[in-house]
Structures are given as structure tokens and as C-alpha cells.
Amino acid sequence: MNLTTYRPSHDLPPVESGSRLELLFYCIGKMVNGTRQPLDRFIKELIADGNGGYCGGDPGWEIDTANENGNALTNSQGILVGRCWAQEKISGISPDTAEYPLAEIYMFTKMALTNLAVDTPELKEEAQSIIEKYFSKPSIDCEHKELKLFYKSKNC
After folding, report:
1. Coil/strand/helix, residue 111
2. Which residues form the domain of 129?
3. Organism's domain of life (predicted)?
4. What is the C-alpha to C-alpha distance for residues 98 and 132, in angstroms, rounded to an integer?
5. Within 13 A of 72's CA, how many CA atoms are on the CB side?
6. pLDDT for 109-125, tens place per residue?
7. Based on CB atoms within 10 Å of each CB, which residue in 4, 10, 90, 135 is the most buried?
8. What does the pLDDT look like over 89-106, one tens digit per residue?
9. pTM of the prediction?
10. Does residue 19 form part of some domain?
11. What is the tens place of the pLDDT at every residue in 12-62?
12. What domain count does the chain have?
């Protein structure tokens, strides 16, 4: 089997084509994009107050953390998740839909912002401000243990 390693997001580590993180990194790369103004345009939609959020755009990608009733998405173990999707004919990623633990989405989004701040000095202040606003303290009710671990807080 010949695997190809590449970077679906400039601000995240390379992944192998077909890896579990490929779709997540692609969607985060679309969400955290230094050419967008403001930089948190999609992040603030994803980390919405309440039960869940949604962000997405062209060309054909989205991250959704709420179900069709507007409630937070959870998997069969009760863990909060986000559903990533990218149009396969544009992204080249198959399958085109996958679920990821919300804490993992947050962790890699924070990593992408941190790397963007280092690599793009003119965005450093804005990226650090977004990290502080959305990723240093809970912006949603996080009764779920995985978010308590992400925020390193007993009073999440």
C-alpha cells in the first residue's frame, strides 16, 4: 500500500491520505484561514452559546455540532461530537463525512490558531485573542467529562 502524506491544513501537522484525522484537518484548515476577516468568522459560529453550532462554506465543507433539533450531537457513548463533511469531488477525501469528539475538534482548532500566530506575525494578536476568548475557558455548558479535561477545569 502506497500512502501519501500531505497537509490538508497549512497550520496543522501532515497526515496520511485516508487517515482518521484527514477530514478533520481539512475542515479546520477551511475554518482557521489567515485570509478570512475576521479570523474567528467561522469559529464563533461553531462554538455557539447553547447546545451546538455550525460552520461551513465554499468550497463545500462544514463542521456541525448540533443535530436537526438543535441539540448537541453525542455519540453512542454520550460523548459530545462534531460532524465534519467535505465535498469529495473538491477535497478528494473519502468518506466525506465523519464524527470527531468535540474536545478533539477544539484541541486541533486551538493548535491551528497557535501555529498561525507563530507563522503569521501580523495575525498573532488576533489569533491569541481568539484562543483566549474561545479556548481558555468554557463558552458552553460542559457537563461532559471530555470538555472538563479540555478546559482543565473542575468547574467547567
Report:
1. helix
2. 5-151
3. Bacteria
4. 28
5. 19
6. 999 999 999 999 999 99
7. 135
8. 999 999 999 999 998 999
9. 0.86
10. yes
11. 999 999 999 999 999 999 999 878 789 999 998 888 665 568 899 888 999
12. 1
What does the block give as the cell for 141?
Answer: 455548558
Give which of 115, 109, 110 is closest to 84, Cα–Cα.
109
User: What are the phi and psi torsion angles at 35 (to 5°)?
Assistant: -90, -10
DSSP 24-88: HHHHHHHHS-TTSSSTTTTHHHHS-SSS--EEEETTTEEEE-B-TTSPBPB-TTS-BEEEEEE-H
CB 119 within 8 A of CB 11: yes
With 0-12 CB in 10 A as exposed, 13-18 as middle and 19+ as buried, what is 92? Answer: middle
90 vs 4: CA distance, rounded Å: 18
Q: Is residue 26 part of a domain?
A: yes
Residue 10 predicted with pLDDT over 70 = yes
Q: Indicate whether 156 belongs to any domain.
A: no
Which grid coordinates belong to 67? 443535530
C-alpha cell at 14: 501532515
Q: Distance between the two ends of the chain, CA-based, in angstroms?
A: 44
- The single-letter DSSP state of residue 156 is -
